Amino acid sequence: MTAVPCSRSLADIRAVQADNLDRLRDSLQQVNIKDLVPLLVARNVLKSYEMGAVYAKGNSEAQLDALIELLKTKNHWVGPMTDALIRNGQAPIAKLLLQMQQAKA
Question: What pLDDT is attached to residue 100?
Answer without folding.
Answer: 86
